[in-house]
Specification:
This protein is mainly alpha-helical. It has 27 helices and no strands. The longest helix has 28 residues.
Length: 498
């Protein structure tokens, strides 16, 4: 009964809040409002006014459903799948978003890539690749957990930078699980901090994050621009994250240092190294599979260009990326029992998280399709006025806050219309950069802030290391706020530099 009452209260609050928000924001057809209206019509193919009654009910329904899902996830996480599935069913039944739009809203390439990557990661874990690398790492660092942590964070940052956030978080999470098997009793803080490092790395180059890809194409930001405007900030933020984590969680690090230096770990480590010596061939092949996967992912743009020339038809690198894990999986029978592949697919893939992720894609897109995110974007313009510095700061903070709860790409798509209008008036590209900074860093605040967060959240739950919203906020809030403050300072200097 308590759950039913809570659910009813959340549903009523969601409906009232959605109605108040959508009805209180009216977007004019001139000035920046006109730019936003035009961008929304182009995105949705709806040739009506953003304030028209025919779309108002859709805005209320889509926002109410999204708030309902977020509210239920916070209050009763175990019911998040029910809430998500109920919400997308209502979207379809009420025709709030067309059925074809709901299907198109999901990035099926990402879902396919995640399923393949998780299967491959399970195979590599079965071949004990992660365990082998981690034991080597512990020996090199002489049993210093602090040093192991710093190296893992840098690995997460680097993999997300040169590959993407999805690849990085899967592999870093696997390393963290191996630490648990080696004797670290509490790995939950490591998982959250690993996500923060991954998202921080995905900021550095356009390939690391969908937001970077979108802004690179939309605002014509080059890789060289990212090297100047994003990479230094990303490097500064990962250094800050490592230092702040060590200082903030001092007692946790002291406890882990004792656990990793225990005699039991040393005996286990020596025993494992002798076992690895007996299965050298399988282990070597496993390491080669992992290296092959990482190299293929890193070089997917060049492979796509070559295939385009070869077949005389353009090959999309992002689509090609989705199939790379399956190419490597097809080579694994040399070391992995083919009869175990079905188990790897069923056990290795975090199917509930992928389904929840699909539902969030649909809910986030409905906010964009119905114009809710565009109304919120217009609300930003009413706060900022025309001062460049105030506009940039507001866009950064607003995009960070929204990206903590909404699909960050949908948020950035809507706010880009605002940035484009201000760019036309001032010729300053800083508005695009603050959207990148805010959209990526803001995703660190909550378990649903980005792809990496949701994937890690699901994998942790399966490994019995359940991450509540309260624990996530307790771990991530201070480091993320400090990252945001440094980012604001960095953006201010970028403004001065033009």
């Amino acid at each position: 009964m308590r759950v039913n009452i809570k659910t009813l209260i959340i549903a009523a609050f969601s409906l009232i809040a959605a109605a108040l928000i959508t009805l209180s924001i009216s977007v004019p057809s001139t000035g920046i409002g006109g730019e936003i209206q035009s961008a929304w019509r182009s995105e949705s193919n709806l040739q009506v006014d953003l304030n028209d009654n025919s779309v108002l009910y859709r805005q209320v329904v889509s926002l109410a459903l999204f708030i309902f899902v977020i509210g239920l996830v916070v209050v009763s996480p175990k019911y998040r799948y029910y809430a998500a599935f109920f919400s997308i069913a209502i979207l379809a039944i009420t025709a709030t978003s067309p059925h074809s739009e709901l299907i198109k809203s999901v990035d099926w390439r990402l879902i396919l890539f995640l399923a393949g990557s998780m299967t491959l990661a399970y195979i590599l874990r079965s071949l004990r690749v992660f365990e082998f690398i981690l034991i080597k790492l512990i020996r090199v660092t002489k049993g210093s957990f602090t040093a192991v942590f710093a190296i893992l964070m840098i690995m997460a940052w680097f993999l997300a930078m040169i590959l993407d956030e999805a690849t990085s978080i899967i592999y870093i999470t696997m390393f963290i699980f191996e630490l648990a098997r080696l004797g670290i009793r509490d790995i939950k803080p490591l998982i959250v901090l690993g996500v923060l490092a991954t998202n921080t790395g995905s900021l550095a180059l356009p390939v690391g994050n969908p937001i970077g890809v979108y802004l690179a194409f939309t605002a014509k930001l080059t890789v060289r621009d990212f090297l100047v405007k994003a990479l230094p900030l990303s490097a500064l933020l990962i250094f800050l994250l490592i230092v702040i984590s060590i200082l903030l969680f001092k007692s946790y690090f002291e406890k882990c240092n004792m656990e990793i230096r225990s005699e039991a770990i040393n005996i286990y480590s020596a025993h494992m190294m002798s076992e690895f010596a007996l299965s050298t061939r399988k282990l070597q092949l496993g390491v080669l599979y992992m290296l092959a996967f990482l190299i293929l992912v890193a070089s997917v743009d060049w492979i796509a260009q070559y295939l385009s020339l070869l077949v005389g038809e353009e090959t999309d690198p992002h689509t090609l990326l989705a199939f790379i894990p399956y190419l490597v999986i097809a080579l694994t029978p040399l070391a992995y029992n083919p009869e175990e592949l079905e188990k790897a697919i069923l056990t290795g893939v975090e199917w509930p998280s992928l389904l929840f992720f699909i539902a969030l894609f649909m809910l986030g897109d409905s906010l964009k399709y119905t114009g809710v995110t565009y109304k919120l974007a217009y609300a930003v313009t009413q706060i900022t006025g025309v001062a460049v510095g105030r506009i940039a700061v507001t866009l950064l903070v607003f995009s960070a806050i929204l990206s903590a709860f909404l699909d960050n790409l949908s948020v950035i798509v809507a706010l880009t219309s605002v940035a484009r209008a201000y760019y036309t008036m001032t010729q300053s590209s800083v508005f695009y950069w603050v959207l990148l900074y805010g959209g990526v860093i803001g995703g660190n605040f909550t378990p649903i802030g980005s792809t990496a967060n949701i994937v890690a959240w699901g994998l942790a739950e399966r490994s019995k290391a359940k991450l509540s919203w309260g624990f996530w906020l307790k771990t991530a809030l201070v480091p993320t706020l400090l990252q945001l403050i440094v980012t604001l300072t960095y953006a201010a200097f970028a403004l001065r530099a033009g």
